[in-house]
Amino acid sequence: MPADPKPSSRRPPAGAAVLREDVTSAIRGAVFEELASVGYGRMSIEAVARRAGVGKTAVYRRWPAKLDMVVDLVLAIAVQDLPAPDTGSLRGDLRVLLAEAARALRHPLASQIIPDLLAEAARNPEIAGKLDTVLHGTQRRIGTAVLRAAEVRDELPPGIDIDLALDLIVGPLYWRLAITRTPLTDDHLDRLASATTAALIGSAS
């Protein structure tokens, strides 16, 4: 393990709050438990703080509002800031993408929380806007990189419809795991990757 770097001469401003990671971790766990227990609409900062064993101020130091807190934490398990896969083939990249999406959707808390948030988004434009910016933005970034790489390899013609492609990639997986709650095997992921590759090639022809 490399030696620790020399302490920086820059110090936090006098009076600045130092956020303890153990407190942040306790709050994260409390948010997920509250969401799974009562849903977004009935969840409150007070309840999260009480479950985490901290004061409300500790929560507000980290997030200015309930929506910011929830979107930030759901992002951590739903999409993460992952690099685009680079296996050398469109099917290989799609297989990795599908596996990562399945991992997120099969998370025991995400499987309860994300459908609830999407239902709230249908009623609340602010939630819808946040989810679209964070979740869809990340998916689009990774999906675009995969599709552009496939164009460079001549697996796809230039100018594919990115939004349609993302629907074809993510839609069937979300339907199976979040809507019908059907078990998902590695064999099904293999076949889904092959079918999605064929669908993308067909949609671009």
Gist of the model:
The chain is mostly helical.
Overall helicity:
over 70%
Main sheet: strands, sense, barrel: none
Which structural class should the secondary elements be placed in?
mainly alpha
Strand percentage lies at: under 5%
Mean pLDDT: 82
Structure summary, number of beta strands? 0
Are there runs of 5+ residues with pLDDT below 50, and where? 1-10, 12-16
Distance between the termini: 52 Å
What value does the Rg take, in angstroms?
20 Å
N-to-C series of helices and strands: HHHHHHHHH
What is the 3D shape? elongated
Question: Keywords, please?
Answer:
about 200 residues, mainly alpha, disordered N terminus
Q: What do you see in this structure?
A:
The protein has 205 residues and is an all-alpha fold. It has nine helices and no strands. It has helices at residues 21-42, 45-52, 56-62, 66-78, 90-105, 110-123, 125-152, 162-179, 186-204. It is elongated, with a radius of gyration of 20 Å.
